[in-house]
Design goal:
Blueprint: H1 19-39, H2 44-61, H3 66-75, H4 77-105, H5 107-130, H6 148-151, H7 181-196, H8 200-219, H9 225-257, E1 275-276, E2 279-280, H10 305-316
Antiparallel strand pairs: 1-2
Helix pairs in contact: 1-5, 3-4, 3-8, 4-5, 4-7, 4-8, 5-7, 5-9, 7-8, 7-9
Protein name: Phosphatase PAP2 family protein
Transmembrane segments: 85-103, 115-133, 175-194, 201-222, 228-249
Keywords: Membrane, Transmembrane, Transmembrane helix
Length: 317
């Protein structure tokens, strides 16, 4: 008996997944995400206001860990330079690598994991649109932050204005700080490594990677502490929504593949008996056991042909 697909992060039955369709789907989602970030730039003054409001709330709650971390990364180049490389590249490398690994080695879990990641990406895009937020590094110097990527730009391929390659800073949305999908995607990678890595080293990496990423995004002044918290919340919400998204995708796929047969072209069975309430009618009857009068048949009204034959035999005796 085929197994029903289990919602959540557990395994699902193997389906015929093709790498080219999966790659195309992931590329389309990423292109939509990148285009959406550019379209959702928002007003600079409102983005700065949102950033300052987050900073004030963090100071009130005493959770503004980004200040001491940023001072540490600014002062110690041996920490700041690797952190900038981490921020600028690792989520572009490790996230696709884990997707490929799941597809090749853990394909029964791939569809659920991929749907979870994509759902979180779209939720993050909604956050960028509704709440454009200026990152700490773009606040005025009086707030005490230093842009480490600008400070150490001579060490990497990025420019002084963004984590994008030099000359492409204007093609990025630098006010997409809330939520931090760097932290969200790192948490997704950590869960995949913890659940399916199979070794102690994989589990250790699954714990270390999201924690270090949260430290990096704050130390480089690219995100606030609450941005990291929001990234975790986005992953939690998308985790809960993943079963519903998968069911909706299955319904859409079924309707898309179902052939539409017009009523006029529906196949007809000629000469087949009509079935009503589980009773089979004979030819010429409109209801089961319809009374048919036959002159000279000797059969009683309502009797079946077999009953008529029995009656004739009894009369002959």
């Amino acid at each position: 008996m085929p197994q029903a697909e289990t919602p959540g992060i557990g395994g699902s039955p193997l389906t015929r997944l093709r790498w080219w369709t999966e790659l195309s789907l992931i590329l389309v989602v990423y292109l939509c995400y990148s285009a959406g970030r550019l379209l959702a730039r928002g007003d600079v003054s409102s983005a700065v206001g949102h950033g300052l409001a987050i900073l004030r709330l963090e100071k009130l709650l005493r959770i503004n860990a980004e200040h001491p971390l940023n001072r540490l990364f600014t002062r110690e180049a041996w920490l700041g330079v690797p952190a900038d490389f981490w921020y600028a590249s690792l989520h572009y490398l490790l996230t696709p690598a884990i997707l490929v690994w799941l597809f090749r080695r853990r394909q029964e879990h791939f569809r659920v994991a991929r749907t979870w990641l994509m759902t979180s990406t779209f939720i993050g895009l909604i956050g960028f649109t509704l709440l454009p937020t200026c990152p700490p590094r773009l606040l005025s110097p009086g707030h005490g932050f230093v842009d480490t990527m600008a400070q150490y730009s001579s060490y990497g391929w990025w420019g002084g204005d963004a984590s994008a390659p030099r000359g492409l800073g204007s093609m990025t949305n630098q006010y997409a700080a809330m939520p931090s999908l760097h932290v969200g995607w790192a948490l997704w990678c950590g869960v995949m490594l913890w659940r399916y890595g199979g070794t102690r080293w994989a589990r250790a990496a699954g714990v270390a990677y999201p924690l270090l990423t949260a430290i990096v995004v704050m130390g480089t002044a690219n995100h606030y502490s609450l941005d990291a918290v929001a990234g975790v919340a986005v992953m939690g919400a998308s985790f809960l929504l993943t079963p519903s998204v998968m069911r909706a995708a299955d319904v859409f796929r079924t309707r898309l593949r179902r052939p539409s047969v017009p009523a006029a072209d529906a196949p007809r069975t000629s000469g087949s008996p009509v079935v009503s309430a589980g009773c089979q009618t004979s030819t010429g009857e409109r209801i089961p056991r319809q009374r048919i009068s036959r002159s000279g048949s000797g059969a009683e009204p309502g009797a079946s042909p077999a009953d008529a034959g029995d009656g004739a035999a009894a009369a002959a005796r």
